[in-house]
Amino acid sequence: MIDFRPILFIIGILLATLAIGMIVPALVDLYYGHPDWRVFSAASAVSLFIGGALVMMNRTEKLRMTSRQAFILTTASWLVLTAVSALPFAFSNMNMSYTDAFFEAMSGISTTGSTVMVGLDTAPPGILLWRALLQWLGGIGIIVMAIAVMPMLRVGGMQLFRMENSDKSDKAFPRATQIAMGIFTLYVVFTIIWTFLLWWAGMSFFDAVAHAMTTIATGGFSTKDASIGYYDNPLIDVIITLGMTTGALPFLLYLQTLRGRPLSLFRDSQVRWFVTIAASIILAVAIWHSEVNNVGFWTALRFSSFNIISVMTGTGYATTDYGLWGAFAVAVFFFVMFVGGCAGSTTCGVKIFRLQVLYEIAKIQLNHMLRPHGVFIAYYNGKPLTEDVTESVLSFFFLFVFCFVVLAAGLGAMGLDFVTAISSAGTAIANVGPGLGPIVGPSGNFATLPDGAKWMMSAGMLIGRLEVFTVLILLSPDFWRD
Amino acid sequence: MIDFRPILFIIGILLATLAIGMIVPALVDLYYGHPDWRVFSAASAVSLFIGGALVMMNRTEKLRMTSRQAFILTTASWLVLTAVSALPFAFSNMNMSYTDAFFEAMSGISTTGSTVMVGLDTAPPGILLWRALLQWLGGIGIIVMAIAVMPMLRVGGMQLFRMENSDKSDKAFPRATQIAMGIFTLYVVFTIIWTFLLWWAGMSFFDAVAHAMTTIATGGFSTKDASIGYYDNPLIDVIITLGMTTGALPFLLYLQTLRGRPLSLFRDSQVRWFVTIAASIILAVAIWHSEVNNVGFWTALRFSSFNIISVMTGTGYATTDYGLWGAFAVAVFFFVMFVGGCAGSTTCGVKIFRLQVLYEIAKIQLNHMLRPHGVFIAYYNGKPLTEDVTESVLSFFFLFVFCFVVLAAGLGAMGLDFVTAISSAGTAIANVGPGLGPIVGPSGNFATLPDGAKWMMSAGMLIGRLEVFTVLILLSPDFWRD
Ligand SMILES: [K+]
Ligand SMILES: [K+]
Asked: How far is the CA of A217 from the centre of ligand 1 (A)?
């Protein structure tokens, strides 16, 4: 029998934390004199009550967990937090069904950024802040998980980033807690820096806070229906582009950089790949946009760099409807969606390190076909890759594609047209935000989708955010067998 | 230095064979009194001359090849045969540019079946027969390669089907030549049977021959612009559905069945998977079509079974424009394109055995995550899978997807809209035939695509047909290094 007490205990603590988080929008609404402060206070009380009850009832001596318990905890905590975070949306006067509220909350916590809300420009401040806060919390949550939980659970090749390995060669970080605190501090500092940068560049202070949070979290919720395009300000574009990139690099490397290894960031192969891939695609799309749509090259470069970085890091802001840039650009935006950023960042998708591993393995395969008796070893960042890691990464890729296909077909069955269905499936599973086409494209909105499609997409966001395996393993009958 | 003589020698022999093949449409045109008989005779002479010259100049004592030579031979022979097969298209009075002629020939030899010809119903008989013959030759060519060449070259997990392995346990087939002869005979017999079935069901004898050849080869070239929909005959639909299925199963198993092991076919896990997957999808689409489009269930099942089998086996016939069946059906048709049939058949795509291996590996990965110290072994058809095979299959899947993405983006750059670009990329690389959307869908045609797109698609068909690795390996600088 699985012991659920430690699982419920930790979910309780997380709910209590969420209750504290809900006080922030309550205070903001109170400050702006908006009646929603009551909704947030009530939701906070509910969250605190459930959380407290779970903590009380499940106190246990030892908090060590088996990996089975850790798997259940990961998915269950994400689901419970989403269900409770949805309450303010459902009970504010935004006229949202619980389906819509759950979709919006999942899109927030998973840092996806697809929205079903229309009229953001006039939405109450508490709700806007709550959306930003959910992404901000989801973002730090995922970094901590990527560093502390995923490697232990050996999810999709994340065992590459196991702490024990780096500990041996590296006495600079003795304790996981210390690392977690360091990263949290850094995350807060980044958010403060980008708040002031955006404020300085011309945003209102409120908008600056909200956008700083969703930028660093590569979340993509905006306070404007037109997203960052609302400001039409090149300076803001550049600041946010840098912010999204910051959110897409491995946070652990920032710590190393700060602790006296200034070159860690530049020496890391994942970072180099990210920069190379992003720069090549930005340039290609800028040239296309400039040639085909008769736009000056620098204007094309400005819009190409912002929107490609936004989609590639899975942030999902838009400064224009790039769906109108023509065939090549649309195809590139579709595929770039799946790339993602680096492991140990706030981004989702396939991720750069997996592309590196896939590339290495393909190269080895070709060599192996040529010299069947040769011995070839795949390397990552100078270290040989074990079979365990390579098969994990390859299976991840297959399952990622498989889930995408199933989700796209499911959304088709809900009546979404082909482009809407496949781009919505992609945007959900890669946690990007906007899709393609007139309905869910960068100028569109997920509000008009049928309820079934919203639930399917919510499931897709969860599966994508938790690196596929973590959720799918719970569906295996073997998992529940003793 | 690579010794090109044996390569050129074999290409010479193949060209001489092609020259003999060209005499068939020449005789048919002569019989029908069409002046194209001169074009075919001239092309035959050219082919015979080049082929003869190559044979003469490159006669060598030993015909043993290194795998490097075998890789060059595979891609080079396919390219040279296509270039020469294109001549009759280019010089007949069909007004085709050489680009169009090459596209049509590649689409034929690779058994893809995408066409740039309009007005098939009134096209000269020689040209129609030549298209069918190209697919028929391509079909048998690929079976022989899948049995004799690919396993030796260890392409994408095909080493699973290596002869030496089965030889040890199985003394029934002492020699590869004998097997090749057996399969060729079977291929001819199947073609004759289907010719008579189609003739009996109401086709003209000429149409019956042409369609029997492109059915068994899962090629999909028709003699009618409306494809099989022209006949609107349920009996023909059923006969062709059975024929496409016959072409999609492993031909080696037919031999075993005939040589006294009647259950081989039903005991093979690849065949079971194929039937299960096909049946489930046919049923799902039939239910959708019947419910959403207000069609009787049996009519829906008739059209669903024909068209799903056609797309899944990569044949590419159509009896109706399934692009109009609505979102779910379109998404399913898009993804089913990539499935393909069994290894050792005339079909292309990812293929069933790779899906089985991917499924096994994903299952093992989940078990392994649950019990990190457990030992789990993946099986295929009751035999354990080696790491060599699993990594081959996984890399194949990744490279297949990668080539699809690059091709789709390239077609976008040629100005094709999103749906046309991604479905054309898919249909080329999986050698299916029709794409999706108004331009290249089942009722459409590839004639209006720009020349650049046609060359890109030709490359895609070649890459897909030769199992990706075989072509990509030639692009590696290591390949050409001594
Ligand atoms: K996002
Ligand atoms: K075909």
From this structure: 8
Q: Ligand 1: distance of its center to the CA of A220 in Å?
A: 5
Between the alpha carbon of residue A245 and those of residues A269, A307, A333, A359, A463, the distances in Å are: 16, 12, 17, 23, 24
Q: How far apart are CA B426 and CA B120, in angstroms?
A: 24
Q: How much distance in Å is there from the Cα of B30 to the middle of ligand 2?
A: 29
Q: Do residues A236 and A302 lie in contact, with contact meaning Cβ atoms separated by under 8 Å? A: no
Whether the predicted interface score ipTM is above 0.85? yes
Window A:395-414, CB contacts with B under 8 Å: 395, 397-399, 401, 405, 408-409, 411-414
**Tens-digit pLDDT profile for residues B398-440:** 899 999 999 999 999 998 989 999 999 999 999 998 889 888 8
Tokens of A358: 């896939």
Place of tokens 């040239």: A287
Which of B393, B394, B422, B467 to probe by mutation at the A interface, max A CB count within 10 Å? B394
Return the C-alpha torsion angle A302, A307, A308, A312, nearest 10.
Answer: 150
Residues of B in contact with A358 (CB under 8 A): 395, 398
Alpha-carbon distance of B167 to B148, in angstroms, equals 13
pLDDT for B360 equals 86
Point out the ligand nearest to the CA of residue B220. Answer: 2
Please compute, for residue B112, the number of CA atoms within 13 A of its CA located in the half-sphere on the CB side: 33
Which residues does residue A380 pair with via DSSP β-bridges, in sequence order?
A: A383
Answer whether A417 sits within 8 Å of B473, measured CB to CB: no
Whether residue B339 lies within 8 A of chain A, CB to CB, comes out as no
How far is CA B407 from each of CA A280, A283, A333, B204, B477, rounded to the nearest angstrom? 17, 19, 14, 39, 22
Query: How far, in Å, are A366, B5, B73, B391 from residue B477 at the CA level?
Result: 11, 22, 17, 22
pLDDT single digits (tens) B309-348: 999 998 989 888 888 898 888 899 999 999 988 988 888 8
Burial of A375 (0-12, 13-18, 19+ CB in 10 A): exposed
3-state SS assignment for residue A5: helix
Helices A234-248 and A297-312 cross at an angle (nearest 10°) of: 30
Distance of CA B44 from the midpoint of ligand 2 (Å): 26
Percentage with pLDDT > 90 across chain A: 44
Report pLDDT for B233: 92
Contact B217, B138 (CB under 8 A): yes
Nearest Cβ partner for B367 among A405, A412, A478 = A478
State the Cα–Cα distance between residues A305 and A301, nearest whole angstrom. Answer: 6
SS3 call for A112: coil
Query: Hey, CA dihedral for B205, B209, B210, B214, is it positive or negative?
Result: positive
CA distance B138 to B134: 6
pLDDT band at A179 (very low <50, low <70, confident <90, very high): confident
User: A417 to chain B, minimum CA–CA distance in Å?
Assistant: 5
- The answer to whether B112 is annotated as binding is yes
Interchain CB contact of A392 with B (< 8 Å): yes
Q: Within a 10 A sphere around the Cβ of B402, how many other Cβ atoms?
A: 17
* Spatial distance between the Cα atoms of A133 and B141, rounded to a whole number of angstroms: 61
Q: What are phi and psi of A126, to 5 degrees?
A: -60, -45
Q: How far apart are CA B439 and CA B15, in angstroms?
A: 35
Which positions ≥6 away from A251 have C-beta within 8 Å?
A: A143, A147, A183, A186, A187, A344, A345
Answer whether A436 sits within 8 Å of B416, measured CB to CB.
no
A278 pLDDT tier (thresholds 50, 70, 90): very high
Instruction: Compute, in angstroms, the gap from residue A353 CA to the centroid of ligand 2.
Output: 36
Q: Are A77 and A10 in contact (CB under 8 A)?
A: yes
